[in-house]
Design brief:
single chain, about 240 residues, alpha+beta, BirA Bifunctional Protein, domain 2, SH3 type barrels, 2 domains, 5-stranded antiparallel sheet, 5 helices, 12 strands, binds biotin, EC 6.3.4.15
Length: about 240
């Protein structure tokens, strides 16, 4: 598995997308950098990360055994991979905030940006970008963020953590290949942040409402129980969990 190490780049996702042009790259090809000058988050947000303190990398995975309707299973597999990786490093109280933020003790320690290449209803390849806060301790202006160091008290070697995460991604992509969708979904739901807890949401129209997260649909939608017999399902971009 080839790993390209760069001192600085705008965004490892942007770089790997170009490199794998059209989804034809070697499975597992990885790009990691010490500094991103234009790190991208979900929904057009910015991902900032202190130079050389954290992991910012992207990995290309062959996903040609999945069709577009199954795209959320990639999200589940990668979330679970990061979950297992940080757990093996001694982190506790880990939750997955839909769709794929990794939290510990209610603070975000990793973000995931997945950009798929689609050809004729098939996901020919997936560029999986991960920002994992490892050794950063100053999160001024980001009160909801944390790092492995802040949570565990241990400084981690970035190369070692990268190896652990990549191994977990391989393991979880094998589950995808074996079509173990039910197991992946059950595990993902068991780690879901604020599941069955009274929560407040904002929908795409800006309306605030209360409900309980009850699970994830087969297509990756967030299912929220609004009233006794009413469950609403939301696509990504249609709802924000406020608290
Ligand atoms: C999010 O939580 O909004 C997703 C953040 C994803 C950040 C990673 S860092 C490596 C890769 N390159 C990017 O530009 N973004 C992802």
């Amino acid at each position: 598995m080839r790993i390209i190490k760069l001192d600085a780049i705008d965004s490892t996702n942007t770089y790997l997308k170009k490199l794998s042009g059209g989804g034809n790259a070697e499975d597992g090809l990885t790009v990691v950098t010490s500094l991103q000058t234009n790190g991208r988050g979900q929904m057009g947000t910015v991902w900032s990360s202190q130079e050389a303190k954290n992991l910012t990398f992207s990995v290309f995975k062959d996903a040609s055994f999945l069709n577009i309707k199954q795209h959320f299973y990639i999200s589940m597999a990668v979330s679970l991979a990061v979950y297992e990786a940080v757990k093996s490093l001694g982190i506790t109280k880990i939750k997955v905030k839909w769709p794929n933020d990794i939290l510990s003790d209610d603070k975000k320690i990793a973000g995931i940006l997945i950009e798929n290449v689609i050809k004729l209803n098939v996901i020919s390849g997936s560029v999986i970008g991960i920002g994992l806060n490892v050794n950063q301790t100053d999160f001024t202006g980001l009160p909801a963020a944390s790092s492995l160091l802040l949570l565990s008290g241990h400084v981690n070697d970035l190369d070692e953590v990268l190896t652990i995460v990549l191994k977990q991604i391989d393991i979880h992509f094998n589950y995808l290949k074996e079509k173990q969708f039910k197991i992946l979904k059950a595990r993902y739901e068991s780690h879901l942040f604020r599941k069955n807890k009274p929560s407040t949401f904002k929908d795409a129209e800006g309306s605030i409402f209360s409900g309980y997260i009850v699970g994830i649909s087969d297509f990756g939608q967030l299912m929220v129980k609004i009233e006794d017999n009413i469950i609403r399902s939301f696509d990504f971009k249609e709802v924000v969990l406020l608290y």
